[in-house]
Structures are given as C-alpha cells and as structure tokens.
Fold each of these.
Amino acid sequence: MPIDRCVCRQIPFEELRDIAAEESLGFEALLDTTGCGSSCGLCVPYIQAMLATGRTTFPVMSPRELERMCKSPQAAEVKPDANSPSAPKPA
Ligand code: FES
C-alpha cells in the first residue's frame, strides 16, 4: 500500500505539495498550517521527502531511506535497506 497522505488529517501529499507551493510554506509552516504531523507523526518524514523531491507517493520506507532520499532528491531510485519493508525479498 503506497503512502500518499497524512492519514490522521486525511490530506493527500498532492494537496500538501500544492498548499506549500501556493503559500510558499516551508516544512514547519506547512505542518502548522495543516495540522499534519501533530497526531501520530508517521507522515512527518514522508512530508519532508515530499518537499525535498516533489514526489507525492512513496512505498513504505525506513526513516534512514527517507533521510537518504531528502539528501539526494535528484536520485530517481533510492535503494531500500536490506531490512526495510520495501526491500525486495530473496527468491
Ligand atoms: S499520519 Fe499524519 S499525523 Fe498521523
């Protein structure tokens, strides 16, 4: 199941990206404005990755993978960690 929204606020990342662009909001201001990240917080690293890359859909990724994606947003593919839920399983 792809990650494409703040589940607690039911706001898709696509809408968050548009709000950030239209209102020139950075990460903290976007969270303050929308309330995203203020409940369970699981969407927070994905929102950071969304702002860094422009992507609005992600596989389930580890915090380390998301951090790596934020540091190299130009990378088309981020190799998953071996223990990540998104890592390919050996045959
Ligand atoms: S998914 Fe965004 S605060 Fe829970």
Amino acid sequence: MPAFTLYGARGSTNTDRVRLTLAEGGFTDYELVLLNLQKGEQKSPEHFKRHPWGKIPAITTTDGFTLYESRAICKYLAKKYSFPLLPPDSNVEATAQFDQAQCAETLYFADPAGKIAFEKFARRFMGLPADEAVVSSALKSVEAFFDVAEGLLKDKEYMAGNEFTLVDIYYIPLIQRLFACGYGDVISSRKAVSEWWYRCMNRPAIQSLLKADKEAMAAASR
Ligand SMILES: N[C@@H](CCC(=O)N[C@@H](CS)C(=O)NCC(=O)O)C(=O)O
C-alpha cells in the first residue's frame, strides 16, 4: 500500500509543485489520484473532507493524516522523508532566510503570476477571453518582482541562499506557465534570474519529470 495518496489534477501548477518536490526527493511510494476540475470533482462531499475549500492538491496518508495547501504539503513531505531541500532546523539563520524567501515567493510572485496563468491559460480552457487589464497589471507586478530578484540573485545561487531548496521548486510551475503563455522574457531578459532558472531546470529529477509530462501531454493530444 502506498505511503499516501496525492489528490491533484492534470495541468495544475499547485499539484505540480508537490510532484516536483517528490521527484527531487526521489520518492515514488505514493498514489496520484487525478480529479476532474471541469466536472467539479474537487467540490464533492468526499473531497471537502480533505480540503475545506474544495481545492487540490491534498494528501491523505495511510494512517489517516490529511493535509492541504501545496507549500505546506511540500514542506511536510520534505521533513517526513528527509529530502535535502530544507535548511536544518538547527541553523536558525538559514531557516529564517528560507521562511523569508518563501514569503516573498508566495506574497509577491505567486499572486500576480497566478493571475496571468488564470487569465491566459485557465480561461482559455473555459472558452473565455482573458481580461487584458488584469494581465497587464499582473505583468507589471511580475516584472517589478524580478527586477528585485535580479539584484538578489547576483549574490546567491538560489532564492533562499546558496543551496537549492523547496522555495526554488515553488517557483517552477508558475514560471513554466509564464513561458507557455508567451511571457518567458520576464526570466530570459534578466541575466542573474535566467542563470538561476537554468540551474533549476538542469536538475536531473526536474528535467525528467517535466520531459515525461510533456510527452504525456503530446500523447494525450494525439
Ligand atoms: N494555495 C493553494 C491553491 C490551491 C488551488 O487554487 N488549486 C486549484 C488548482 S491549481 C483548484 O483547486 N482550483 C479549483 C477550484 O478552486 O475549484 C495551494 O497552494 O494548494
């Protein structure tokens, strides 16, 4: 019996954050259950027991422990299975810098980048046009975010310091979505940011998961 079940959806950036964490940790002993968001399966009474807001991802372990929120899940899994993706608790300063980087990602990056992804990607699947005013304002925020990150990444290799951590993983799904929506130049036009992105993308576990997903998508659309 697998150690836990991950409830997610195909093409969900929040699910992919967890899958990338598991790939980096080399952990495969889990079951992935894909819910169909278009059919509203995330709003079933059964799923509300796992996620009070009726969203994905969520996990349930064999001993009945349930957790939702992608970043909380990633952190739990990294701690539970000792993935080398977090500073040690004994290093109080490095842990504080990790928390700081995590807050910056969630509060300053994920919100506007998520708006672009929703307007340009999700709404297309719903057959709805993007609200260009929302996109343009969100794009300004993402540009301003990476202007600051460009300065910070001149002095460190990764977002939370010189080690690759969960925070770097947190960025990957939404940045990929920015590339897919034609906004990849927010990354490639900034030297330090694009070098950081290249370092993240060149990690073997990340590369092979993204390659497998791309192949699965291509096969599904044939
Ligand atoms: N902050 C949450 C966001 C979860 C979220 O918005 N998930 C989306 C899919 S990527 C969802 O469930 N959407 C369907 C809905 O809200 O009904 C996380 O990081 O897990």
Amino acid sequence: MYSGIQVFAAPRTHNAPLTSNLTEEQRKQLCGLLENAELTLLYKASVHGYQASAFHQRCDRQGPTLLVAYNYSGYVFGGYTSVDYAQSGQQIIDDKAFLFSVHGGAPLCIYVNSGNYARSDDAGGPNFGQQLYFCYNNQATVYNQILNKYMGVKFNAFNFSPATLYGNDTQLSECEVYKVEQNPQVSAEEKPWRNVLWTADRRLQLMKMIRNHTPLMTSVSRVKILMIGPVGAGKSSFFNSINSIFMGRITSKAMSGSAGTSLTTQFRTYPVKDGREKKPLPFVLCDTMGLEEQSGAGLDIEDINSILQGHVPDRYKFNPTAPFQPDEQKASRPASLQEKIHCVVYVIDATKISLMSDKLQEKLASIRRKVNSLGIAQIILMTKVDEACPLVEKDLQSLYLSSYIKSKVQEVSSRLGVPVSCVLPVKNYSQELELELNCDVLLLTALQQMLNFADDYLDDAGHE
Ligand SMILES: Nc1nc2c(ncn2[C@@H]2O[C@H](COP(=O)(O)OP(=O)(O)O)[C@@H](O)[C@H]2O)c(=O)[nH]1
Ligand SMILES: [Mg+2]
C-alpha cells in the first residue's frame, strides 16, 4: 500500500481568490478533450484542504466535473465524470467518464470500459473506477488500488498504467476540481441580437465618421481614450489593429504578446495617423500596459486616478511600490480638459471571464467607482471573440448570432457593473497578414462608439 512522506496541507482562508494552476496550453488541451467546454474552478485542495468533506462541500451537485491533480514530477492528470457527486452511496454508470494525463505532447485520454462502473459515489474523496483515489486518506496523495479477480471484479473500469498516467509519483502538489459546462455556442440564435452591416461601404462610412470626428468641445482637439486591463487582454493589439486599418496594412507599432507580468508599467499614449497623408486622427489611445491583480504589482488605483486627471506624461514608468507623484508646479493647477481622459475602456479577454479572480474583479470595481465619480464614460472591449466561440472563429459575421458570445457579454457586464449596451466584442488582428473586412467593421464600430461616449462626457464637462 502507500508509503512515503505524507504532506498535509492545512486549509487556508476560505475567501482566498481561486486561481487555476493550469497553464493556458493545458487548459486548451483539456477543453479540447471536453469538446470546448468551459471550466470553472470549484475546489482547490491547497486552499480548501485535502479532506473529503472539503471536496464534497464545494463539488457536490455541480453537474459534470473535471478533476485535475498535479504531482511533483510535473504530471497533470485526473479524470472527468459527467455525473454529479452526491454521496449517494451508489455505483455510477457514466460512459462519458475518462482519465487523462498531460505530460508534454498530446494529452492521454482513457475512457471507462463499457459495462463498468465509472466511480463509487460515496462520502470519501474523489475516485475513478474504485481504482484511482485522489486525496486518499484526506492527504495530498493519489492511490492506485490494484484490483484482481479475488475482489469479485471482472474487469478494470480503466486500463491505465500508473507510470504513464502520473509517472508513479503519488505525491500531489495540488488537486483541483472544475465545473464543466458545455458551451451553448453551437446554438445560434435565429436573429442577430445586434445589427451590423458587414459591407465595404459601411467600413468606408465608419472611417469617414472617425476621420471627421470633431470633439464637442472646441478646446479639445483629440479624444483621449484610456485602455485598462490585465496583461494579455489585447490592449496593444487593439491599438495595432486600429492603426493597421488606417494605414491600410497590418502594422505592429505597440509591442504585443509579451510575457506573463508587465515588469515595467509604462504609460504610453499612441496617436494614430491617417494613412499616407500622415494627418493625425482625432483620438489618442492610451495604454497602461498591465493590471496585475496582486496589490503592489501593476497599476495602482492612485496611479489610475493621476492618469484620469491628465497628470501623467507619455512614457512615464510607474513604480509598483509607490504611486505617481505629480510635479509640484503642475499639480498646483488642474490639467486642462484636453489633457484629461475622456473615455475609459476595460479590455477583457472573452475566454477568461469565468476565470476572473475576485481580486481582479475587486480592483476593476474600485477603478470603476473612481471613473464613475469623475463622470467619465466607460466601455468594455471584449476581445478574442474568435478564440471564445468556434462559430465566430469560422465566421466573424455570426458574432451576434452566437448565444455563447451573448452570454459572455452578459457575464462581463454584470461582473464589471457596466451595462450590456456598453460591451463591445471585437476580434483584434493577431496572426493575420492582411486586413479583413469583417474585422475592420467590428473594430471601427467599437472605436466610433468610444468617440461618441467621449462626446457625452465632454458635453457634460462643458456644462459644468
Ligand atoms: N485570437 C485573438 N488573439 C488576440 C486578440 N487580441 C489579442 N490577441 C493575442 O493575445 C496576446 C496578447 O495581446 P496584447 O495585445 O499583447 O495584450 P496586452 O497585454 O493587453 O497589450 C497576443 O499574442 C495577441 O496576438 C484577439 O482578438 N483574438
Ligand atoms: Mg501591451
């Protein structure tokens, strides 16, 4: 039976934000095994404890779930069951159940042998086929029960070898359980829930409106739009996409696709020029680079306040340990309306909305309160709609027919407290070599909306 050092992880606070240990690549691989379902983290042993009771408290009656265990040898492995955990005392028939392992390369997937019970639905920790027990004995271990004919079992429910599944390393560094929800994205609505004219004429018309946009206040020559969002959400890509449209070819002026955290948080303002004429367009996109969820990392609420008030100069490097100090001369008089931010855009990755941590949501909420108090217009730019929904990936025109995208728009709206009508889904240019009409129409529509919203703000500010 099991021998070795047993690690007992004491449960930490129950309010700690749950963050998945899966890498983006692993998440994609697992979602692939589940026909692109969506994963929501329910239980994390290092946070809630390895006890069976902690597991059941979080995971019972949650529908289909995916268990993901991690060991010190770098194996990510576990199992899927489509049947609720319910402590029913029953043997569960579940022909969709499988065991998996991700250890470099393509994931291994082992389905339950037909006619076998996929698991025993008892009060103990999670098990598969009464063969593989996770959090065995309420500990950070996995236990492989070797069955034989003397135990009255004809066949193993799962044919796996502990060596390939988890490298024979029974010591777990983590164990997570995810709720698995099948994306309703294959279901297309009959009528689009927003109307878009996907035509070259419309693109031309939008470009013309944007070019000729004159901010409502004569003292303001260019609308200042601030983009805020986590690293990797697509802020730089949005700027590059807009720049590309007006240049008539794919450009990449702002560095995009950088690593996990933005170590230097630099404030950049990007004017956009109109094609070869080099005439500046009437807006500036401001990029804050990163919004890390931990405090003391990424942008701070005070820094954002300084940006909103127009005190922060281009290329200013934020110090993650101390807020921005405006120089005294400047601080004594308030910035002019021209220098202030006129529209705030929260850039949110459509594929990450459900996995958004409480910390990040809180941080965004405190920013929103600040922005609200200043009366500045706010918009959510929901990026990566192509990655989020296969229907949309195939054809961007089906965006407003996708029930899944609709549900994501509603979810991000309620998580951030911004009305649904202010959520603008887009697909940025990321790997494309050429401009594409549908992409352009969506991106320009979003920009046009930002300019309109900024006008509402300027209108209000002008009356004060
Ligand atoms: N498929 C897809 N990829 C995107 C989209 N927007 C951004 N990306 C990719 O996401 C990664 C991060 O984007 P980036 O603009 O650097 O994010 P930032 O940290 O917010 O500036 C890059 O690899 C982009 O190519 C999108 O709409 N669709
Ligand atoms: Mg960036």
